[in-house]
Design a protein that fits this description.
Strand order of the largest sheet: 1-2-3-4-5-6-7-8-9-10-11-12-13
Shape: globular
Oligomer: single chain
Organism: Dissostichus eleginoides (Patagonian toothfish)
InterPro entries: Leu-rich_rpt, LRR_dom_sf, LRRC14/PRAME
Radius of gyration: 26 Å
Distance between the termini: 18 Å
Family: Belongs to the PRAME family. LRRC14 subfamily.
Structural class: alpha/beta
Keywords: Cytoplasm, Leucine-rich repeat, Repeat
CATH architecture of the domain at 8-131 and 139-208: Alpha-Beta Horseshoe
Protein name: Leucine-rich repeat-containing protein 14
CATH class of the domain at 8-131 and 139-208: Alpha Beta
Largest sheet: 13 strands, parallel
CATH topology of the domain at 8-131 and 139-208: Leucine-rich repeat, LRR (right-handed beta-alpha superhelix)
Order of helices and strands: HHHHEHEHEHEHEHEHEHEHEHEHEHEHHE
């Protein structure tokens, strides 16, 4: 990336903190933003603090990739509190949505949980600062700054978050996306009651024991449920009534575009979930859902099929009985589908050959994930030859071929076995890579990334 002259100059200015008294008082308002960007990218927490404490605009949005260093974020939050008592600070809205990085990632970013705790600490600290600066504090303090962020709540941070949301002070915490892990349905319900509904776009519930009644209550609110303890393969008391309630709740979601469910084990219930939605979905993520042939048949003829832009059916086993439905579904979505994941679906060479024509007709497809499928080198090369002929495709996640694994692998290995089974060090895996790279080079597709790196694969890289 080529830096502008303004960015280069800003980086040079914030490099030496000892010189800040010389220029801080004379910086025009329009230069605060480039100076802050330079301070964040150059990891200059002292400069970050001094700029934010004097922030001259009503709004400060910090959204940058990669995520800023932890020290810079801490300095920014402390400066917001100090700015409450600084007459030079005009800040009224602090927007940190999407700022969280991966804990322990490159550059020491602040993860979602740490950022949430830090934000709540800032809110509570601002209340204490206000109390100390006033002889008498009113019950309903005036809100000076609204703080918007994506919040991550689990059992360890629940009390801190609740304390921040129930505190009346100069900072008001607002949420765009809420991620809740390992907390009960009642706690999630209480949390939603405390959060301002204005601007709350979604709730992501993970690793929680919600039950059928919890599913009926939360799904119309959350739209993302991942690894929650729910199994509808066995009949449970009240299950039918709860599913009817769920269907009624989903009918109220007139603007729903995205539905994401992971590992809920809902065989035969897809019609209940999707037929209630009057408006077609654009994003549908259903990995590990134990989908039945009837589920896939319904999806292929539903009103959602022709509008899907993103579809994830990973870890739902496909075979001859479901192939017709999958081909029909791909045909319906051929003009809209941009991201498709069929990883861990048990696709063999024979199944893939029958599926390739339908995949090749997806003319809008930009990323395709087929990891952890039991393909041979021959099947893999058939896949690659098809991929290079798809002009819109930018990224293909392919599986390691069966020939690359150590002896002893079952004839029809599961995705879990393919994930855990060691590759054979005696085999030169570079031979497979060479074949793939040769096909890529001969096609002239320098814009297409072919990878078997499951851990670092990211479909959003091509957006």
């Amino acid at each position: 990336m080529v830096l502008s002259l303004l960015s280069l100059c800003a980086s040079e200015v914030v490099r030496d903190h000892s010189s800040s008294p010389c220029w801080l008082s004379f910086v025009p308002m329009e230069l605060f933003r480039p100076l802050l960007e330079a301070s964040l990218s150059g990891c200059r927490p002292l400069a970050v603090g001094e700029l934010v404490q004097r922030w001259p605009e009503r709004t400060l949005r910090v959204r940058r990739k990669p995520a800023p260093n932890r020290l810079c974020i801490q300095a920014l939050l402390l400066a917001v509190v100090r700015g409450l008592l600084d007459p030079r600070c005009a800040l009224q809205v602090l927007d940190l949505c999407g700022l969280q990085g991966d804990e322990g990632g490159t550059g020491d970013p602040m993860g979602g949980w740490s950022l949430t705790v830090a934000l709540c600490t800032m809110v509570l600290q601002a209340r204490m600062t206000e109390s100390e600066s006033k002889q008498e504090v009113k019950e309903d303090s005036e809100v000076l700054v609204h703080v918007r962020a994506d919040l991550f709540v689990n059992a360890r941070s629940w009390e801190r978050v609740r304390g921040a949301l129930t505190t009346c002070g100069p900072l008001k915490l607002m949420c765009r996306y809420l991620r809740a892990e390992e907390i009960s349905v009642s706690s999630i319900r209480a949390l939603l009651a405390l959060l301002p509904q204005q601007g709350l776009l979604g709730l992501d519930v993970r690793y929680s024991n919600i039950g059928v009644a919890g599913l009926a209550e939360l799904l119309p609110l959350s739209l993302r449920l991942h690894y929650c303890n729910l199994d509808l393969r066995r009949e449970q008391p009240g299950q039918e009534g709860a599913l009817k309630d769920l269907s009624e709740g989903l009918k109220q979601l007139q603007e729903l575009r995205c539905l994401s469910l992971t590992a809920l084990r809902l065989p035969g219930q897809l019609r209940v979930l999707l037929s209630s939605l009057s408006r077609p979905l654009e994003v549908l993520e259903l990995p590990y859902l134990s989908l039945s042939p009837a589920d896939l048949a319904f999806l292929s003829v539903s009103h959602h099929a022709s509008t899907l832009q993103q579809l994830d059916l990973s870890e739902n086993r496909l075979d001859e009985t479901t192939l017709t439905s999958i081909r029909r579904l791909l045909s319906q979505a051929s003009s809209t589908l941009q991201h498709l994941s069929l990883s861990g679906c048990g696709l063999t060479d024979n199944l893939l050959v029958l599926l390739l024509p339908s995949l090749g007709c997806c003319r809008a497809l930009r990323s395709l994930a087929l990891a952890l499928n039991p393909l041979s080198v021959s099947g893999l090369m058939d896949l690659v030859k098809m991929a290079v002929k798809m002009p819109s495709l930018r990224q293909l996640l392919y599986p390691n071929p069966l020939e690359d694994y150590q002896p002893g692998l079952p004839e029809m290995p599961s995705s879990a076995q393919l994930l855990d089974w060691p590759l054979d060090e005696a085999i030169d895996v570079n031979i497979t890579s060479s074949q793939i790279n040769r096909a890529l080079k001969e096609s002239g597709r320098s814009d297409l990334l072919l990878t078997c790196d499951l851990l670092n694969y990211d479909k959003d890289m091509v957006c």
